[in-house]
Structure formats: structure tokens, C-alpha cells
Amino acid sequence: MTGQKIRNMEEFARVSGISRPTVSKYFNDPTSVRASTRSRIEAAIEQHDYRPNIYAMNQNRKLTKNVGIVVPLLSDPYFAEIARNLEQRCLADGYRPTLFSSHGDAALEVEVLDTLRAMKPAGVLLAPLGRASDYRALEAFCKDVPTLIFDSSVQEIGLGFVGSDNFQFTSHITDYLCRTGEPPCFFEMKTPANPNAHRRRQSYVAAMERFGFEPDVISVDGEGWGFEEIGRLGGYEAIKQNRFSTNTVLCSNDRLAIGLLTACYEQGVKVGRGKDCSIRVAGQDGHPHSRYTCPPLTTISHNYDAVSQTAADALFAAIEGQVTPWKSTRLEGSLILRDSA
Amino acid sequence: MTGQKIRNMEEFARVSGISRPTVSKYFNDPTSVRASTRSRIEAAIEQHDYRPNIYAMNQNRKLTKNVGIVVPLLSDPYFAEIARNLEQRCLADGYRPTLFSSHGDAALEVEVLDTLRAMKPAGVLLAPLGRASDYRALEAFCKDVPTLIFDSSVQEIGLGFVGSDNFQFTSHITDYLCRTGEPPCFFEMKTPANPNAHRRRQSYVAAMERFGFEPDVISVDGEGWGFEEIGRLGGYEAIKQNRFSTNTVLCSNDRLAIGLLTACYEQGVKVGRGKDCSIRVAGQDGHPHSRYTCPPLTTISHNYDAVSQTAADALFAAIEGQVTPWKSTRLEGSLILRDSA
DNA sequence: CCCAAAAATTTACGCGCGTAAAAATATTAT
DNA sequence: ATAATATTTTTACGCGCGTAAATTTTTGGG
């Protein structure tokens, strides 16, 4: 960093000995200028620490390089993890990601979408709240902004959908549980926030019927996104009332399972597959925390990398002009065997 | 939403029957125009769904309404929670928050700061990585942008510091442990990422000496931000080698404690204060997850609301012109008694 | 060395809004 | 009602950059 402060691209062009339109071209796409020009500009950037004014840049551009990433709840490490993954893929492809959380609130989700619209982003990666979402608002947004839906599918809106194959998830882990012990009961929320939960229940029922077992679904009360507490309270009641018809419980997701494990602990019910254990508990999601429960949680994990990779690639392709019909991609999960089941 | 699309403020001013400069004034501060004018503008906004172009708005403004929020690691629910809190306080005060995570990487932290600088924010709420931070970069940033440091203090830079009183934290929970059973050993990382860890160790040693007990600090290896795994591996070794001189372990933070609990589980060491238990474990932070460990973790919790409130208020006051000398505010935590200790 | 193609330069305009200054109008106090 | 004050309107310019068109320069191949 030498010399006096550069105020704008005009001045920067002068000191770097390149014309302003060429410099502008460079900032829009460094590969669009000749290599020798590029290195001269880059030397000048290095020397004068110049960065174009992002507001002036985006004002006249039809398409900014901004990408919005929206998740339902950033304080859920699952979403935090996938958001981080997406963020870095955006950066790697030269986009400027901005992270938003709906904080589990449909009104906030709409506000986020409004904010996003004002940003005129090149595209948006959106994980909707699900059941609570204002569907019409999402639909309208998708019409204005290239949007790829991930994690939880809401009709056929946007450019497409990328997420996990919930049928495969539940089918696979139900299979595992059936083969290694008593067939599982299914532990879920009565009114889940997320539509994936319905698919998982259906898949459980189908898998059980394939095995010739009687499905047993325990649906517990509770609203909102405090899944652990819902699992703990519901689990407490279920254990007390002896509502689990077998010694194995498959939870609709890991966070519920974490709550159920706490309920088991509090009632002295030993969890695991040892001979001294009275219940097996499994989750679904491969939640970052599942490794550290006691006992460590058997679960079926999202393929975080593949989901974010596929989602980001699909969005970037669409941004760069590729037109493809609406498409749903559902990736398989992999079983993580631990001590809980 | 009626009529055709409004393209810019000029058109919007025309249809709303107000002059453009007045409309501009309204968008900068709705209270700066007469109530009757305000309601006419608001009616027109309602009707035409107009929003000014944020890029054009910010281009000429000396001070945008943007506020940056930077945390070291968004996938840590503690930071996610405090970030959420700060975000909503910004919104409530009419600022536009943007969330950033350094993802535990000092180079990324510097990049975030560069991005932030380009946004010309009114102010920034920054929780530094700590030990790994590029101190000179932080210092330079604080000179350019009004920055309030929170969570983890790095010299006397920025407008001030707001965080928890780590001495009080450790002193308080050490007191509790000493009074209710054997005095605690202290379980920590040898090279912690966060400077708060040093304060906590010092405070532990001081508290033990006050009681006339011999301090016993167990420092385990491990780099980075995977605290649970570090706690689990370090805990595993410590238990195996019988390195805890008493039956009580105070962990430097909750995430280490969570890992230690897993290590205990894996070695069949029963944790809690019951007669059948062989070890007591306590954490520090009041991590969102601490309620759901097995056994639930006794800890001393940050006052999330007060920290974010104080930090946000201090920043907003400075933005609005209030000049105050650099000041460090450290808030007390409160003990959360659960079954682990 | 010449020529066609590629790249850079010159010139010029416009984006949407902030903002300043002077004039006109509305509101409030006297 | 009148003066004093607060608000709004009119007018006008500029911010920093995107971008288009015409021109000039550079490049690489034969």
C-alpha cells in the first residue's frame, strides 16, 4: 500500500496506466482482459489497495454477483453447517454470498425475501421454513429471482429442488433396525414444521409393512423449533405411559432423538444395544452433535457436501444462462452406526 | 399493490403527490417529515409496493445504515444464538444487519473485514477469533470503521468491549463446586483459541487458593475449533491415566465438557452427584445444548440478552455521535444447577 | 512485413438517489 | 390576523461505475 488514497476507478485507472473501461471490465471478469493487462492491474491493486465501490457497481448492473442463502434456523447446527458449505462454494465461484436466517418465523422469512429482492441477487439458495411458510410469498419471490430450493421442498417452485431422499433415509435405517433387533416404533412431532417429516413417517410405515411388522407411530405435541425440548417432554410421557410397543425407537430427526435420550436418562432408562440396555434409539440427519450424545447416536446422515455441491452448481448453471426444466434431486444418506442402536 | 410498476423514486414521488427530495428524506428517517406527509407516503408505499434502490441509496451516503455482525464460528450454537440476538436488536433500531462468520480461520476473518469495509457500514459488532486473529488487521479495521468488540477482548481497540466476566464465571462455579463436594480439577485446552480461557484458568487457580486447595489444571492437546472432539480425546486419556486428582472436573467451557461427558460414557464412568456416581463434571457458558447432555450439564451461563443488549446499545450510541472513552463492560453469569455436578 | 482479429482506448451517456440552496407554502405562536 | 418558524417544493448537480460505439493499438499467423 503506497501513495495517496485512490478515490475511484478513474484515479485507479490513471495510476495503473489502463483505461477505465478496461479496468471496469477486469473487475467484472478478470479473465476477460489480456493476461499482460491483468497483471498490470493486479500489481496496481496490490500497490494501492483499491476496491471498487460495491454500491456504484451494482447500481447499473442488471445482474449483481450477490447470492442469498436462506435457512430456517441458523442456530440449528445442521443448517449452520450446510450454510457454511454453501457460502464457501459461492465464494469459490466468484459470487458474494449473504447469509440469512428466518429464525423459525414465517413473517421473518417474508421479510428476508423482501430484503433479498432489494439486493437484486443473481440467485438465491433457499431452505424454506416448510409448513409455516407463506407459500404465495415464496412463489412470488421465485418468479422475480432465480431461486433454488433446498432441504425442504415446497411444491414445484423455483429453478429446482435439491435435498436428501427422505424415503431412502427412513427406509434404510428402518431396515437396519429391523434386521438387528426388534422392529422400531416411530417417534415424531404431531405437527412437524418440516414437510420432510411426513415423508419419513410414510417411509417408516411402508418399510414396516414390507417386513410384515405392525407400524407404531408415536406423535407428540409441541410447536415451534425447540425440537430437543419437545422430544424430551414427549419422550418422558411416552416412557411413563409405556407407549413404545417395542424396545426400539426411530426418531423423525436427531434433535428429537437428543431430547428423547435426555428423557431416558432422567427416568433411568438405559439406552444402547448392550444386554443391560432396555431401549435402542436412532435418529435421522447426521446432526453435528449426534456424535457426542450419551450413548452416541446411531443415525442416517445427510451427505452435506453432495447436497450443497449439487445445489450450488444447479444455481450457478441457471445464473449463467443454462435453462433446464424444474427438477428435483434427492440424494441418499449413509448410515452412521453408533452405540445407541 | 395497484397500478403499473414504479421504476424509481422520481415516479414514486409523482404518484404519491410528494416531491422527490421529501420522499428521499422520508426514507432516510421517517420521523423527519411531517406526520401528514408521512402517512401519505406510507399509503403510497402500501399501494405501489415501492422500495428505493439500496445501491443507489448507499452510493452517495457518507454513512449507510448497515451493521456488520461478525462471529468466529457460526456453527457453534452459542455464537449463533448471540448473533440472532444482535441481529434482531439491529432491526429494531432501524439498522440493516449482515451476518458473517470467520469459520474459525484467521485468513477468512481478514477477508470478512475487507468485505465489510467495502460495505461502508455504520458500525460493526465484532467477536474476534482471539489468539489466532491478525491483530494488526483488526486494529486497522477499527480505525476505519466504528467497531464494538464483544465476547472476546483483544487489547483496547474499537469503541469498547462488552462480554462476560470470566473471572466471576469461574470464581462463582468453583466456589459452588468446592462447597458441595470435592474441589474441582480444571480441564482445558493447552492452546485455547480464545483468550477468555486464560482468564478462566487464572480465576480457577485464584479461587482454589482462596479455599486453601491445591489447584490441578489438566491441559489437553488439540488445535482448532472442534472442542467436543478435543474434550473427548483429552478426557479419554485423562481418565485412563487417572489424571484427575479429585472426583470433580470443571471444564473451561461447555463444549469441552460435552466431549468429556462422552469420554466418561465411553469408559463407563458414571457422571453426576448421586452416590453411585464417580465423577462430577461442570462446564461454563450456558451453551444451548447443555440442557440436553446426559446427565444435564451444570454450568454458568452467559447473560445472552444483557450482553447483546449492552453491545448493541453501545454501538448505536457511538454511531449516533455519542463520544465515550474506550470502556470494557463485563457482565456476570448465573449458575445453572443440573445433575452433572 | 502485411493483414485480420483481438484487445484496449476515447468519448459520452445514464443509472437512482443524496443533497444543497433558494423559493414557496404550510403551520404554529403571538 | 400577523409574524416567526417549520416543512415542502423547485432546481440542479454530482456520486462511482456500467456500458455502448467508434477508433486506435496490439497481437499472432502466414
UniProtKB/TrEMBL annotation, chains A, B:
PROSITE patterns: HTH_LACI_2 (PS50932)
Superkingdom field: Bacteria
Entry-linked InterPro entries: HTH_LacI (IPR000843), LacI/GalR-like_sensor (IPR046335), Lambda_DNA-bd_dom_sf (IPR010982), Peripla_BP_I (IPR028082)
The keyword Phosphoprotein is annotated on this UniProt entry: no
SMART domains referenced in this protein's UniProt entry, alphabetically: HTH_LACI
Keyword Transferase tagged: no
Keywords: DNA-binding, Transcription, Transcription regulation
Domain HTH lacI-type as annotated: residue spans: 7-61
Name of this chain's protein: Transcriptional regulator, LacI family
Species of the source: Shimia sagamensis
